[in-house]
């Protein structure tokens, strides 16, 4: 029982970290002024693989929490 609670706590903290990192990356893109659209698009394209990796991690954590 205690191991299960520790595992759930770990997964929940991992989920929080992944979500915070996704928010941080998206915020860095959103902070680029609208008049710098080319720079914004370049940054979004550059960070897209990182965001996809984070999204996969978030899904994996959610699936583990449901088990």
Level of helix content? Answer: over 70%
Low-confidence stretches: none
Radius of gyration: 16 Å
The coarse overall form would be elongated
Order of helices and strands: HH
Q: How many domains?
A: 1
Report on the biggest sheet. Answer: none
Straight-line N-to-C gap: 14 Å
Average of the residue pLDDT scores: 92
Multimeric organization: single chain
Strand elements, count:
0
| Classification by helices and strands | mainly alpha
Q: In DSSP terms, counting alpha (H) and pi (I) runs of 4 or more, how many helices?
A: 2
Which band does the percent of strand residues land in?
under 5%
Descriptive report:
There is one protein chain. By secondary structure, the protein is an all-alpha fold. It has one domain. Helix content is 88%, strand content 0%. It has 2 helices and no strands. α1 (2-30) runs antiparallel to α2. The longest helix has 30 residues, at 37-66. The protein starts with a helix and ends with a helix. The model has no long low-confidence stretch (mean pLDDT 92).
């Amino acid at each position: 029982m205690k191991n299960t609670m520790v595992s759930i706590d770990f997964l929940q903290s991992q989920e929080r970290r992944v979500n915070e990192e996704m928010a941080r990356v998206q915020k860095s893109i959103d902070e680029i002024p609208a008049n710098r659209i080319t720079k914004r698009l370049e940054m979004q394209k550059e960070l897209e693989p990182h965001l996809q990796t984070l999204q996969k991690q978030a899904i994996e954590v959610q699936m583990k929490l449901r088990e």
